[in-house]
Design brief:
Distance between the termini: 38 Å
Strand content: 15-25%
CATH superfamily of the largest domain: Glucose Permease (Domain IIA)
Radius of gyration: 20 Å
Structural class: alpha+beta
CATH architecture of the largest domain: Distorted Sandwich
Number of strands: 14
CATH class of the largest domain: Mainly Beta
Order of helices and strands: HHEEEEEHHEEEEEEEEE
Length: 288
Amino acid sequence: MSARKLATLAYRGLQLTFLGLVIAHLALDLGYPWWWNFLPIVLAYALLTVVTRWGGTPDSPRAAREPVEVAPPVTGRWTALNSPADRTPSHGTHAYGQTFAIDVVAEPEPDARPGFRLWPIARRNSAFPAFGAPLLAVADATVVRATGTQRDHLSRNSPLALLYLMLVEASVRDLFGAKRIVGNHVVLDLGDGTYALYAHLKRGSLTVREGDRVTAGQPLARCGNSGNSTEPHLHFQLMDGPDPDSARGVPFTWRGIGVPRNGEAFEAPATGQPGAGSPALTTASRPA
């Protein structure tokens, strides 16, 4: 087990220790100041800061790699969010190997997906064009992880639902590890120490199993809303290992597209179609 993995497990252990101390203090009226209970959680986040920057920053020797060119994992018109073309780490942290991760949402036409609104608090997944969209292998590869049993929850794209996600749901999922953060997912071994992660997949939609060989453009699963997700979308990233807990992010570029910026819409033709090497890239009507 790597040092990064051990440090990540220690971080979760400190979080659980904090919760245990708070419960014990309330139940047993322990004879020490209440603020002492917060020591484990302070240590946990100090450790997390060290772990996420431990060789994970873009200018560190192991992370300083040329972008790996792969095919796009989707087909049709999509919009990029949380793109590494705008900042790294793209999601505000190097944790879970997501330094260069990107989120994409399906928008067959401008304003096709519901926006962020006060009401309704949550929406059904069927309201979003991305839900159920096929996801494709970005290269010839071997499936090293494949799990698809977690439920697809309602959207979290209202202020109240987003607050619940950030303050409660995300913290609980983090305690239970990367699997609960990425939800249903597939990890592909692309060779040369590069792995592709597809996260938030639809429950029961996986068409591959661990150990399968896949070819570029082959369907792997369908887009869902499982794990730490606000709405149906694909979270895609390349890593230098199969385990998000210990892997570092690897930069990518999609063949014929590059790396779309936040709010940019791109058209990805199906593999093998004429013009598949030169998909269009436009600015979406809704900002990220």
